[in-house]
Structures are given as structure tokens and as C-alpha cells.
Amino acid sequence: MAGGRRLVAAAFMAVALVAFAVAVSPAEVADATATATASLRGAPFESIFAFGDAFTDTGNNPVVWAWYNVTDEVLRPPYGMTFFHGVPTGRNTNGRLIIDFIAQGLGLPLVPAYLSHKGSFRQGANFAVAEATALNGSFFDAQQTDVSLELQLGWFEELKPSLCKTDQECKDFFGRSLFFMGEIGIDDYHISLGMRKSMEEIRAFIPDVIRTITMGTERVIQHGAKTVVVPGMVPSGCLASILVALADADASEYDATTGCLKEPNEIVALHNSLLQDAVEELQAKHPDLTIMYTDMFNHVMEMVKSPEQFGFKSDVLTVCCGGRGRYHYNMSVACGDEAATTCKDPSTRLIWDGTHLTEAGYYYIAKDWLNAIVSSLSARASS
Predict the structure, then answer these.
(1) Helices (H), the chain
(2) What is the pLDDT of residue 378?
(3) What does the alpha-carbon distance between residue 108 and residue 128 come to, in Å, rounded to a whole number?
(4) Residue 124 — pLDDT band, cuts 50, 70, 90?
(5) pLDDT exceeding 90 applies to what percent of the chain?
(6) 290-294 and 227-231 beta bridge pairing
(7) What mean pLDDT value characterizes the chain?
(8) At the N or C end, where does the chain have fewer CB atoms within 10 A?
(9) pLDDT at residue 43, rounded to an integer
């Protein structure tokens, strides 16, 4: 039996790696993965379940904003222009997200948004919501949507009875599923910056965010999850939304090599470091499971430092879709507004709307994540 698992894992790794190696651009990934996965048998996952914020949300945020009688700009073009034939899907980008590329690489359908999908969730559900926080909204003394990780986990538990009935059936079902616990937490820090909290105040509650993510991971494990991916954060100090919001920073507060702000990036680096430690502790506690940290920070920094290597323009911090102003970003003109303009070729840009990445940026990160997921499965199958 162990030999059979090794063969399946080895075959899957070969197919998944070919799927991404063949695809030289994001636009070709769908065809490449479809061709490669057509010959795959015994795929290790039957479904994907995801929690998080805009970096993972595949369409929940418009529903949440509608609760507050607010129209979400992601329902207007040019969102969705690259992959979804110009039809906005609720994703905060021009095309696919990391989770979309991962699903395609695994031969699964794109993960449907829990709040807007009307069909079956047998092959997965996405509970992530743009601007969601790890901590409950009561932590922030401000008027905002209170879509925390706790609420998303509650939605998952509400859905569970429709997917499985007995404890054993649920453990079997979720054991064949891939879980994404995040990315989440970046909005906790961005909201706090908007509330003019000091960097010292923000650093003080980073451990609370980490504990919340750890709690969420433990919670899905209790339901039967055997493979959980826990992503880190992108470098906030390289995002136009933060660069413009903190435009009064002194020259010494910028990284001379990248043009990014140092201190916001240090906040994220601390978060990522503590998160990696927490994931290692979880893995030690559950040695029979696969609990893995995946990186966003270093991938984005690599693209910022060497944009030409990825086909991006040299002014890499300039966004594709936005209003007039430095970095083509204007806090009063959001992407999707009539006054906003969009770059001709989003594949030449890393950052889409000031906070989120383009499909091209997500593609390069997803390629690494998929390889890491497949490698971990192979290691588990051969142990």
C-alpha cells in the first residue's frame, strides 16, 4: 500500500510540475493544467476549503458589502478583464488569484465563494472576504464590517452537515481536502495604521493575530483536516495604498534599493516570523498531518527588486488600475471608478489596484506554492 501511495504521489508531482513548467505566462496556465491533469489518476485532493481576506476571496465581498448597502467597485470592470472575459467576479484583481491557480494545478474547479454560490460545495468552498480581519471587529474602535476569521469558521461549521454526517465520514471527507488558513491579518494592521496607531502599538498585538490563526488551524484539524496551508503576508511597505497613506514619511524611512517603506515591511516580517514559528509548533504537535507555511513576502520582494526578470516594468510599484497621482494611485479614485484608468497590459504590472497583486504576480507565487504542496504530499506518502 505504501508503495502505491508513493507511485501516486510521484505521478502527481510530475504532472503538477509539468503543468506549471509548460505554462510560460498566466494566460496559458488553464490550457496547460487541463492537458496535464487529464492523464492524472488518484489525485490527492477532492476539494479545497479556504479562509482569509482579499488575497483569497473569490466573490464573497460584494455580498458582505451589500449587507451594508454599499456597492463594491470589484463588481465593475476592469476587474476580471484578463481571465474572466471582462466579467467581474468579486476577485480583487484582473484575473485569477493564487487559490485559482492552485485549484487548476490540482485538476479541481475554481473554489466557489460561500456567500454567492448557489450550487454544490462538495469540491470545496471559499469563506474568505476582502477586508476581513483575523481579530474580531470589536478589537478595532471603528465602524467597519466585522468579518473576522471567527465568523468565517462559523460559516464553515454551518456548511459541514451538508457535506458529511458522522464524525468518521467528516474526518474522511476533510482528510481528502486541502485547507488554506489565510492569508489573513494584513487588514488588522492596515486598519490600525488608518486609525493612526503607532508601529509600537501594532507590534504589541501581532501575537494576538498569530494566536487567532493558530486557533483557526487547530479548529479545522479537529474537523478532520490533514493538509493545511498557512500563508504569510505580502510586504505592506511596497503597496501604493500604504506608500500614499504614509507619504509624509522621511526619506530615511524608505529602502533606497526598492523604494518601499521599511517600518510597515518590518511589521509584516515580524508577523511572518512568528507565524512560521507557530506553524512549526503545530506540525510538531501533529506529526501525522501536513501543516505548512507558504511565503508571499520574499516572492514579492524578489519581483520588486528584479521586475524585468518577471516581465514587469521597471517602475514596479506603480499600479495598473487607479487614479492620478504618485504610483498611479489616488485614495479618492478607486479602481472601478469612472475616473480611474487601467494600464494596457496588466501582465507587465505586479500590483493591480494599490493593495492587491495582478494575476501575473499571483501566478509566480502560486507556482512555488503548488510545488511545495506536492513535495510535502510526496514526503508524507513515502513516510
Answers:
(1) 2-22, 29-37, 61-67, 98-105, 149-159, 167-175, 186-194, 199-222, 240-245, 262-285, 297-305, 359-382
(2) 75
(3) 18
(4) very high
(5) 80
(6) parallel
(7) 89
(8) N
(9) 65
Tell me, what DSSP letter sits at residue 46?
A: S
User: What distance, in Å, lies between the first and last C-alpha atoms of the chain?
Assistant: 12
Q: Say whether 255 sits in a helix, a strand or coil.
A: coil
Query: Residue-wise over 275-299: b if at least 16 C-beta within 10 A, else e?
Result: beebbeebeeebeebbbbbbbbbeb
CB atoms within 10 A of CB 336: 19
Rounded Cα distance between 346 and 83, Å, is: 11
Beta strand spans in 34-136 (E): 47-51, 124-126
Question: Strands 227-231 and 321-322, how do they pair?
Answer: unpaired
CA–CA distance from 74 to each of 90, 91, 163, 337, 343 (Å)? 5, 7, 30, 10, 17
**Which pLDDT tens digit goes with each residue over 13-66?**
333 443 443 344 544 544 444 333 333 335 689 999 999 999 999 999 999 988
Eight-state DSSP code of residue 309: G
> Is the predicted pLDDT of residue 269 greater than 50, yes or no?
yes
Query: Residue 153: which of 69, 228, 68 has the closest Cα?
Result: 228
| 5 vs 189, higher pLDDT | 189
Contacts for 43 with CB less than 8 Å, ≥ 6 apart: 12, 37, 106, 107, 108
Residue reference for cell 504576480? 361
- 350 burial (CB, 10 Å; 0-12 / 13-18 / 19+) is buried
List CB contacts of 241: < 8 A, sequence separation 6 or more.
190, 329, 331, 354, 355
User: Looking at this protein, which amino acid is placed at residue 34?
Assistant: A
Residue 125, strand partner residues: 49
Distance CA 57, CA 74 (A): 11
- What is the H or E stretch that residue 290 is in? strand 290-294
Residue 270 to residues 185, 253, 282, 295, Cα–Cα distance (Å):
12, 17, 18, 13
Q: How far is C-alpha 103 from the chain's CA centre?
A: 13
pLDDT score of 2: 35
Give the closest residue to 286 by CA, choosing from 230, 372, 217, 232.
Answer: 217
Cβ of 10: how many Cβ atoms within 10 Å? 14
pLDDT of residue 145: 61
